[in-house]
Amino acid sequence: MPDAGQPDAGQPSAGRPNADQPGYRLYRELAGWWPLISPPHQYAQEATYLAAVLSSTAAVPVHEVLDLGSGGGHVAAHLKDRFDLTLVDISADMLAVSRRLNPECRHLRGDMRTARLARTFDAVLAHDAVDYITGHDDLARVIETAFAHCWPGGIAVFVPDYVKDDFREFTGAGGGTDAAGRRASFTERTWDPDPSDDWVQAEYEFTLRGADGAVEVIRETHRLGAFGRDAWLRVLAGAGFVPGSGLAGRALPGRAPDHLFIGHRPVQPGPGTTPPAA
Predict the structure, then answer these.
(1) Which of 48, 54, 179, 264 is the most exposed place for a label (fewest CB within 10 A)?
(2) Taking residues 162-174, what's their average pLDDT?
(3) Residue 275 has pLDDT above 70, yes or no
């Protein structure tokens, strides 16, 4: 549910976007473990880079930022001192986690494909929750949502984990502990069952040890989008954005994500509008 007195940000119809579907327990009953599974400090360097992108690439000063698919608020935790953030996520459980970490931010429950807040922002950010978009039509809807909330001269920044052009099978692990004595760890394997389509499969194993020593092992499989760069650029342009030309050669603080797409909303609509170099 949204904060008291605030409307829903559209009607959620499918999870993160699939996080509310049965089987995606990570963003529902396991959400309280998220700060241990993926600790907030691990986002600091990338958030520093994203802050520099947001601050330096728009045609207008960036003060107010809409974070679509904000999840547990771990990116927001490192941006909130620089920007006025509004956080939107479809998972009520993840929003509860974020509210504890970021009580000063506005939180709204909504689907990144359909949310409409009846206002605009200087910039829109969609971090890796956009991975849960696996179809071209839904990708177009997400980018249309970003465009609808982006002030003329502003930018939208999308940070998918995977792009079809250079996807390679990936394995990883991580986790953390908290002051109560809980410990969480995970392993993952992300691979592509069918390279001809636009999604990949992530297989997770979570080991959760409670403060009382009780251990639970949970396995679940997530389907994640992996669109080609051409598809991203085409959908950005189709929504009305001018796609950014990339950030190669620019020295920005922090750590750059593996993949980043920028859409500039023209100050004035029509042909011939060019954004600042990005």
Answers:
(1) 179
(2) 97
(3) no
CA atoms within 13 Å, Cβ hemisphere of 50: 31
User: Residue 17, preceding bond cis, omega within 30 degrees?
Assistant: yes
Torsion of CA 74, 76, 79, 85, to 10 degrees: -170
Q: How far apart are CA 114 and CA 86, in angstroms?
A: 16
Phi, psi (rounded to 5 degrees) for 146: -60, -45
Rounded Cα gap, residues 247 and 52, in angstroms: 11
**Integer Cα distance of 89 and 73 in angstroms:** 10
The residue among 92, 166, 159, 170 whose CA lies nearest residue 125 is 159
Q: Which tokens in the block code for residue 147?
A: 């465009």
Burial class (CB in 10 A: 0-12, 13-18, 19+), 212: exposed
Q: What is the mean pLDDT of residues 156-160?
A: 98
List C-alpha distances in Å: 14 to 19, 154, 208.
7, 28, 27
Domains of the chain: 25-164+227-264 (3.40.50.150), 165-224 (2.20.25.110)
Closest CA to 129 of 12, 29, 208: 12
Backbone angles phi, psi at 8, to 5 degrees: -60, 145
* Whether this model's pTM surpasses 0.85: yes
CB 264 within 8 A of CB 276: yes
Query: Which run of H or of E encompasses 144?
Result: helix 136-148
Residue 239: count of CB within 10 angstroms of its CB: 21
Dig out the tokens for 29 from the structure: 């009953």
